[in-house]
Amino acid sequence: MDKNTEGTLTIVLLVLIQGVLASGAVEVQPSINPAVVGTSVTLSLSPPTALKSGSWAVGESLILTWLGDQQAAFPGYSGRASVNVLTGALTLSSVTVADSGVYMVQSSDTQLKANASITVLEPISNVTLRANQTELVEFYSSAVAACSVSSGSSLYFLWMNGSSEATASNRVQLTDRNSTLIIVNVTRYDQGPFRCLVSNPVSNGTSNPVNFTISYGPDTMALTVNKQNTTSFLIGSNLTMLCSVQSNPPAQLRWAFRGEHVNTTGPLLDLFNVSENQSGAYSCLAFNNRTKMNSNITVHIIIAKPSLSGSEQQVVNLWLLPLLLVVESLFSLAGKL
Questions:
Q1: 292-301: per-residue pLDDT in tens?
Q2: Pairing relation of β-strands 239-248 and 156-161?
Q3: 183: β partners
Q4: Are 222 and 244 in contact (CB under 8 A)?
């Protein structure tokens, strides 16, 4: 092999080596990523590299080519895409969600090929939460709430029940990419307020609160007499019976004595100067006209005469003893006659 041939091969090898080195060392860096719809993005080469010619493409679509100080944009990019003919940096203005993708620059100057991925997102606006119905019955109804936005892309949905996150469970379902919340067989603790938080890497928004009115009960009844635990009282006492119950809407309360309704409604039943014949079973009856359920509680009241104390009993005995002696004497005399 002559020296001229050897020299030519050496130059070619050096060019190829430089191209490989350049291709491996140069990276494409977006000015911002993710980008917001309507803004401009510049894709620069790092480190800066002088290129006399090249082309930019996204996926399989060519954006533009340049040679020297001349450049030409392809349809769809005219007026939106431009290249710095000295550095090869691409600037894309008024970007849309459709501009998301992998951008590649190629140049035959140094056999350069490099790429970078960018994402263009639409900001979130007008987050709205709507429920199919808000009047529900415990254990029988299911709540359905749908969250929507007027605009936004790559959406992430988070649901809140008051200050706690509402996550999927046996009764809670998240559907439609988590934009719809379903609570099966609601309980009284599912009233809310529920909110929908929507976010993406460039923005976020929160919906208006939605509350559910959940009818429940009557249940968890309690009945006290004179605010005491006892059920035995003296003749002549005044009694106030208080009936409490958990219910929404508030339960209708009625009273019964020994199974018969009395002409009293509401949580209180007052008895004045009670007598023995008022002993017996007193019942509080509760009814919820929304759930159509009822419940009751009964207490057995004993009205008794006061018992004698020890000293009182001694006094009675002192009076009874002479009387008994007189009666005994009379019976003995009658027997002798």
A1: 999 999 999 9
A2: unpaired
A3: 143, 172
A4: yes
Mean model confidence pLDDT for the chain: 88
Distance from C-alpha of 100 to C-alpha of 264, rounded to nearest angstrom: 74
Q: Which CATH number fits domain 128-211: 2.60.40.10, 3.50.50.60, 3.60.9.10, 1.25.40.10?
A: 2.60.40.10
**Model-level pTM?**
0.73
What is the distance between the alpha carbons of residues 137 and 188, in angstroms, rounded to a whole number?
Answer: 9
Q: In this structure, what DSSP letter does residue 100 have?
A: -
The domain made up of 3-121 has a fold known as: Immunoglobulin-like (2.60.40)
Pick the CATH number of 216-304 from 2.40.50.140, 2.60.40.10, 2.60.120.470, 3.40.640.10: 2.60.40.10
The string of pLDDT tens digits covering residues 166-175 is 999 999 999 9
pLDDT digits (tens, 9 = 90+) for 140-170: 999 999 999 999 999 999 999 999 999 999 9
Burial 55-94 (b: 16+ CB within 10 A, else e): bbbbeeebbbbbeeeebebeeebeebbbbbbeebbbebee
